[in-house]
Amino acid sequence: MKFKRILLKISGEAMMGDKGYGVDPATVDFIAREIKDAVSMGIQVAIVIGGGNIFRGVEASVQGMERASADYMGMLATVINALALQNSLEKLGVPTRVQSAIEMKELAEPYIRRKAIRHLEKGRTVIFAAGTGNPYFTTDTAASLRAMEIGADVIMKATKVDGVYSSDPMKDPKAKKYDSITYLDVLKKGLSIMDSTAISLCMDNDLPIMVFNLKGKGNIRKIVEGKKVGTLVRGNNGARTKKKNK
Ligand code: GTP
């Protein structure tokens, strides 16, 4: 097995299927089945989920809402998605814990790093909700941060395309897909995989990012098995060198 502990980053939009808004139960069920498949292989799975299917803080702030308030609303949206995914996972028999970066004890555990690690060791899937709990940070940055904190082997960043391309493959038929690319190239070329804060955090801590298409059935399993799926974003030496933060 190539990876033992993964941090899966799912965007809010991935939860809405073709509905254009909100949570599509059939789509969430598909995602839950993909996760269950990885869990059944003995992989420890942690998840950070976005909220863009319900509320996008950045867009609201462009339209005049105060940025911090808009971001807090976006964080609440991620909690709704986390509960929806937990429900689908538990229906499939996958034990799951939701931990929220903003305390709301009645519906989720508070985020406690050591407890999250313990859950993972016990085979429970942990969903991190409410981003980092701070405005001005994206859920991509939350994914990088949590991945580092729990000592994940990789961030698996789910997207609509099957990897990183030299240009937009939807618009440019000559776009070339990379099998792997360095963090610096992603930043220099301005490739919009994750925001620059998230990429820099991964670069500084040598945490690889696997960009892949979540809609492809069995993709999570294939990546974990080391098959050629998606694009690996990594440092020059291609391996994680720093000691894991246990
Ligand atoms: P172990 O201590 O390893 O057995 O983990 P556990 O999560 O099974 O035990 P715990 O007694 O901490 O939690 C039992 C249930 O309560 C789980 O479903 C937790 O997610 C939930 N739980 C724990 N703490 C909180 C909390 O602060 N708020 C909410 N809403 N649920 C919590």
List the total number of helices. 8
Name the shape in a single word: globular
Bound molecules: guanosine-5'-triphosphate
Query: What name does the CATH topology carry?
Result: Carbamate kinase
Provide the number of structural domains. 1
Task: Please report the total strand number as a whole number.
Answer: 11
CATH class: Alpha Beta
**N-C termini distance:** 20 Å
Low-confidence stretches: 241-246
Q: What's the Cα radius of gyration?
A: 17 Å
Mean of residue pLDDT?
Answer: 93
The share of residues in extended strands comes to: 15-25%
The side-by-side strand order for the widest beta sheet comes to 4-3-5-2-1-6-10-11-9
Record keyword descriptors for this entry.
246 residues; Carbamate kinase; disordered C terminus; nine-stranded mixed β-sheet; alpha/beta; binds guanosine-5'-triphosphate; globular
